[in-house]
Amino acid sequence: MKLFILISALAVFGVSWAEQLRYDNHTVYKVLIENENQLTIVKHLSTLPNGYNLWKPFHGVGSDAHIMVSPKMKSAFDSLMKLNDFGTEVLIENVQSLIDEESSSYKRDATFGWTSYHSLDTIYDWIDDIIAEYSNIVTPFVIGKSYEGREIRGIKISSKDGNPGIFIETNVHAREWITSATVTYFINQLLTSDRAELKNMRENIDWYIIPVYNVDGFVYSHEKDRMWRKSRQPVSGSNCMGADINRNFDSHWMENGGALSDPCAETFGGPKPFSEPEAQALADFVTNIQDKINIYLSFHSYGQYLLCPYGHSATELPTNYADLLEIGKAAADAISRPYGTKFTYGSTGSVLYVASGTSVDWMFNERNIKVGWTFEFRDKGRYGFVLPATHIKPNAEEAVEGVIALVEKSSALGYL
Ligand SMILES: [Zn+2]
């Protein structure tokens, strides 16, 4: 009977686990970039469509990249590294073994909770439950449709008129599953907790939250390719698919190498700003309510960073940077409290890498939302994107502490 149900479900959804891409013996290396020659080589590797996949981008000489290498490219990769005196370290020996562990705890019809990762359908069902259960303060919204026609849904939590607003967008990068798992935990805490700080945030702030922003990519990452990052819109003239939605916003688009013009790159900025319907939909939605939004947050993984504008430059800093640093420090301190997890904070361009055309920068520059933060959650590369589900709760607890501190410091500095 169980087998029958499984087969029927697969037939209905057109999904077969056997069709999933496998990552047997794919290895993730940390590669140190110590000179210009090495930088050129890593840049080249990061745009090759087959055999290499950039997990953690780099920001030049003195930084490091995390690169997944397929078994068939390993000997070529090894030679290249040796020939050019690279320092390397193996972070993950076999990516497939992590995916296997993850999928053994992954249940399509699991009751909602924070001990396993969930599909888009399950998350949307949970949102429907929340809307029904807390109908006095929760209302649904849809910002628009994805390229493949899925609704990009969100909820607004509002206890009274006239509150300042905070917008949270998560899972723009499809493979960063910890982000939507964390935000649903956050929503649950916000709605149910008796803790004074959370009650205060529930009653005196309006929350606009999109739990899964890149819906097409997210479904694809569950059903076909666990390592998918981008949108699912074809690129004319290329065999590579999709753009990085978080490099597609029309603010310093494609400047300073903060996105790539090669459609095969993980950080492809798209053929033009707002070429991706998802980016355009979010921009339009926020434009309509921009006077109501004081803080904009975007949840990502991994690396344990808190990143504020600007992304487009390593040296240019916003005029309120001193305030942003105070807010970042408060949030990082709070995040470290439960488990000692260390987050680094500062501007994206100066702390991590130049990233142009991001949603946070667009909101900051074009919609005057002067507190904007990207959270890069756990970990630092031990598991990377395939963070075991046992990390969901602790990561989410840290995020709750971080957001509380961020809100309190922003309020003290007059931003709310
Ligand atoms: Zn990301």
* Low-pLDDT segments, ≥5 res: 1-17
Residue share in β-strands: 15-25%
* Alpha carbon gap, first and last residue: 56 Å
Structural class based on helices, strands and sheet pairing: alpha/beta
Order of helices and strands: HEHEEHEHHEEEHHEHHEEHEHHEH
Fraction in helix: 25-40%
CATH-derived architecture of the largest domain: 3-Layer(aba) Sandwich
Give the count of helical stretches: 13
Spatial strand arrangement across the major sheet: 5-6-8-7-9-12-10-11
The beta-strand count equals 12
The averaged pLDDT comes out at 93
Overview of the structural elements:
This protein has 416 residues and is of the alpha/beta class. The chain has two domains: 75 residues, Metallocarboxypeptidase-like (Alpha-Beta Plaits, 2-Layer Sandwich); 293 residues, Zn peptidases (Aminopeptidase). It contains 13 helices and twelve strands. The strands form two sheets. It has an eight-stranded mixed β-sheet with strand order 5-6-8-7-9-12-10-11, sandwiched between helices. It is globular, with a radius of gyration of 21 Å. The termini are far apart. 46% of the residues are buried. The structure holds zinc ion (ZN). Zinc ion (ZN) binds next to loops. Zinc ion binds next to loops.
